[in-house]
UniProtKB/TrEMBL annotation, chain A:
This is Septin-type G domain-containing protein. Gene3D superfamilies: P-loop containing nucleotide triphosphate hydrolases (3.40.50.300). Belongs to the TRAFAC class TrmE-Era-EngA-EngB-Septin-like GTPase superfamily. Septin GTPase family. Pfam families: Septin.
Automatic annotation (TrEMBL), chain B:
It comes from Fibroporia radiculosa. GO terms for molecular function: GTP binding. Keywords: GTP-binding, Nucleotide-binding. Residues 466-481 have a biased composition (Basic and acidic residues). This is Septin-type G domain-containing protein. The lineage of its organism: Eukaryota, Fungi, Dikarya, Basidiomycota, Agaricomycotina. Gene3D superfamilies: P-loop containing nucleotide triphosphate hydrolases. The keyword Chloroplast does not apply. PROSITE patterns: G_SEPTIN (PS51719). It comes from the Eukaryota.
Length: 313, 501
């Protein structure tokens, strides 16, 4: 039997159901939004500073080792930091997860395990809450929506640890790679570095956000391509303000010049911020729910079914 | 020559009966040494040995000529030196060093020039090693330091290429020349250090390389024919630290701890244009704190006494900038005000490599090339290599005979030996005597015993005989009693008659 074709009819008079968007908005405004980010990268690449810069407020402290007798931190200390930011009546609940001590040890084997475990734990917590008979109307969403992976600006290529970790992470979360501390690279170096990294990512089949799924039509695929071509932003982060031309902007001051964080010619911070907050925030949340969470859920439920089958038989 | 003039002990003065001399300290040679090094032209390296030997030679000459010390005119001496009282000899065993003053121009102040010419002819050798994670600008810095492209630009491997799994050691040599002075520069690179997921023991190939160079030098020294000794020991190791801004990473600490006893360590903050001024200062302080906490010994510029203030100030300045925050560049760029300099051009400004305000490259170059190259080489030779050699020989079972360190006077030695020998002989004699006496005593005792036995037996026999005789006489009487007692009586009568009163 053929599927019933859906015809589009135009109503004769104005009905008014187009206000549903506003109703939804109103509802959602009351509820507020939730966004969870995890930042992964070696110590000293400016992760905490960047988060503070993106959201223009002091959210997390830099976690470097300040004294000689402090022990090196272990990645087992993964804790989220929660903040609520309000802008124009829109409440955003922000969870930032920092990963101190990642990649710091001499032997970094399995340093990604705590991170992957943490992400999976969030998925499984959500799944459990979903499966209970009496569940809340609106489940607190602690699943990680976005992972910012910080790449060292060597200028040569990706390191083996980067490749391995990005591969592992891209299976469970949206990975957005960024190049940190890009004020150590000149313009030509940046371009060549980006090309090299992109070639390597393609070679190792690392799926980066945004993904191409089967549902996307031609146009969306094109759009994704263009996004991917322009991402891999080179970043400089700064919380402090410096004076350029009489205006106070965020930047870094050196003896030979001042780096303006918001200047597009200096670094691509603006792109990243727009990408994360202005254009793709909702998409990130949705992709997490639809793609990653679904994959996880599928695996878990199948495993559960097999368990019950083997127990029953 | 002009740099040699103001050396106090060798003043040229007219003939005088001056008994007091300014003491030429034996490290005066070294002060001339270091003074030359601090001047801006490439100066010759003055090995202290021939100079000191010259001093000693004149001294010993003088000491042998001491017999005529008190003739009124100094004509008996060839070099016209004025006599003087012998200064106090240091301690027993060393010949008293007599300080003399020159009275005319001799000309051995030309020695440094001779050495200079010889060294220039021979050429100099310097080996440095660069250690650090990839992408920190090691090759670029070497090119910048020596103003030549020693390291070719790195070709990038395609992503599908096999990555090496161990730290490789690569060595590049270059012969460069400046003002007639030839320098053979060896740079040892360590690609792959710190790049792997598991970096355990990534310093092992490096340490092994350093030790194998020491080994080969030791072997060359121990050869029969030592004419050609090629010195490719590592004289300096530049350790590159990532500019995180926080503190040293565990791999840095561990690697430095392995290396600091075997090579001169010079820590460097790479890519310092990522850090602002305050960040650089804080970072340096934290690195130094880390280094002190772990007791890591980095290369310190040695200072000598009787150096001029300028040199001391310079040395202090260099020392205060350790670890050096450097930026390297082998390209020339144009600054906004039109100058062409070596540097890096950013949209927000130009970092000049040669500008002391921007980075510490100039200081690093001073330390490494202009001022302390010879110090590094000397320290490697005298301290690091010697320590390693001692360890190695001890571990091979060579026992250190510490008596070789005393000054050997052969006659005394023989005397001592003779005394020892005699003592030994005397002891042996005494022992033998004792043994002999013991034996004699034993024999005597034995003999006495047998003598006594003999006597005893003799007595016994005598008694037995007596008894027998009495018996026999008894019997005889009895027999004679049967007869008239004539003979016996007579005999007895006679006896009696004899004995009758």
């Amino acid at each position: 039997m053929a599927a019933p074709t859906v015809e589009e009819i135009r109503a004769n008079a104005y009905v008014g159901f187009d206000t549903i968007t506003q109703q939804i908005e109103h509802k959602l405004l009351k509820r507020g939004f939730q966004f969870n980010v995890i930042v992964v990268g070696q110590t000293g690449l400016g992760k905490s500073t960047l988060i503070n810069t993106i959201f223009a407020s002091h959210l997390i402290d830099t976690k470097g080792r300040k004294e000689a007798d402090e022990p090196v931190r272990q990645t087992t200390e993964i804790h989220p930091v929660s903040h609520v930011i309000t802008e124009n009546g829109v409440r955003l609940r922000l969870n930032i997860v920092d990963t101190p001590g990642y990649g710091d040890q001499i032997n970094n084997e399995n340093c990604w395990d705590p991170i992957v475990k943490y992400i999976k734990d969030q998925h499984s917590a959500y799944l459990r809450k979903e499966l209970t008979a009496m569940r809340d109307r609106h489940i607190q969403d602690t699943r990680i929506h976005c992972c910012l992976y910080f790449i060292n600006p060597t200028g040569h290529s990706l390191r083996s640890i980067d490749i391995i970790v990005m591969k592992k992470l891209s299976e469970v979360v949206n990975v957005v790679p960024v190049i940190a501390k890009s004020d150590s690279l000149t313009m030509e170096e940046r371009e060549s570095f980006k090309q090299k990294i992109r070639a390597e990512l393609v070679h190792h089949n690392i799926r980066l956000y945004p993904f191409d799924t089967e549902e996307n039509d031609e146009e969306e695929v094109q759009l994704n391509e263009s996004i991917r071509a322009s991402t891999l932003p080179q970043l400089v982060g700064s919380e402090r303000n410096v004076i350029i031309d009489g205006k106070s902007v965020r930047g870094r001051k050196n003896r030979w010049g001042v780096v303006n964080v918001e200047d597009e010619k200096h670094c691509e911070f603006v792109y990243l911020r727009n990408f994360l907050t202005r254009t793709h925030l909702q998409d990130l949340i949705e992709t997490t729910a639809q793609i990653h969470y679904e994959a996880f859920r599928q695996k878990q439920l199948l495993a559960l079914k097999e368990q019950t089958n083997t127990r029953a038989s | 020559m002009s740099a040699l003039q103001p050396s106090p002990p060798l003043q040229v003065q007219p003939v005088q009966w001056t008994l007091l001399l300014p003491k030429p300290r034996l490290d005066a040679a070294r002060s001339i040494n270091s003074k030359q090094q601090h001047s801006s032209r490439p100066q010759p390296i003055l090995p202290p040995l021939p100079f000191l030997a010259a001093l000693k030679m004149t001294d010993s000459y003088i000491s042998t000529g001491n017999g005529d010390a008190f003739t009124p005119n100094g004509s008996s001496r060839m070099n016209g030196s004025s006599p003087s009282l012998p200064t106090t000899s240091n301690d027993a065993g060393t010949a008293p060093i007599i300080r003399k003053k020159l009275m005319g121009f001799v000309g051995f102040a030309n020695l440094p020039n001779q050495v200079h010419r010889k060294s220039v002819r021979k050429g100099f050798q310097f080996t440095t090693m660069v250690v650090g994670e990839s992408g920190l600008g090691k090759s670029t810095l070497i090119n910048t330091l020596f103003n030549t492209t020693i390291n070719p630009p790195k070709e990038t491997l395609p992503p599908s290429a096999e990555r090496p799994s161990t730290v490789a050691i690569e060595s590049i040599s270059a012969d460069i020349e400046e003002n007639g002075v030839r320098l053979r520069l060896n740079v040892v690179d360590t690609p792959g250090f710190g790049d792997f997921v598991n970096n355990d023991e990534s310093w092992r190939p490096i340490v092994e390389n350093i030790e194998s160079r020491f080994d080969s030098y030791l072997e060359q020294e121990s050869r029969v024919n030592r004419q050609k000794i090629a010195d490719n020991r590592i004289h300096a190791c530049l350790y590159f630290i990532q500019p995180t801004g926080h503190s040293l990473k565990p791999i840095d600490v561990e690697c430095m701890r392995q290396l600091h006893t075997k090579v001169n360590l010079i820590p460097i903050i790479a890519k310092a244009d990522t850090l602002t001024d305050e960040e650089v200062a804080e970072f340096k302080a934290r690195i130094l704190a880390d280094i002190a906490y772990h007791n890591i010994h980095i290369f310190q510029a040695p200072t000598y006494e009787n150096e001029d203030d300028e040199a001391i100030a310079e040395a202090e300045e260099i020392a205060s900038k350790i670890p050096f925050a450097v930026v390297g560049s082998d390209k020339e760029v144009t600054t906004p005000d039109g100058r062409k300099v070596r540097g890096r051009a950013y949209p927000w400004g130009v970092v000049e490599v040669d500008n002391e305000d921007h980075c510490d490259f100039v200081k690093l170059r001073q330390m490494l090339v202009r001022t302390y190259m010879e110090e590094l080489r000397e320290y490697t030779n005298d301290v690091l290599y010697e320590n390693w050699r001692t360890e190695k020989l001890l571990s091979m079972g060579v026992i250190q005979d510490s008596s070789v360190f005393k000054e050997i006077n052969p006659a005394i030695r023989i005397q001592e030996e003779r005394i020892m020998h005699e003592a030994k002989l005397a002891k042996m004699e005494a022992e033998m005597k004792m043994v002999f006496q013991q034996k004699v005593q034993e024999k005597e005792a034995k003999l006495k015993q047998s003598e006594e036995e003999l006597y005893a037996r003799h007595r016994e026999m005598k008694e037995a005989l007596e008894k027998q005789r009495l018996d026999l006489e008894d019997k005889k009487r009895r027999i004679e009693n049967g007869r008239p007692l004539t003979p016996e009586k007579i005999s007895t009568g006679r006896k009696k008659g004899f004995l009758r009163p």
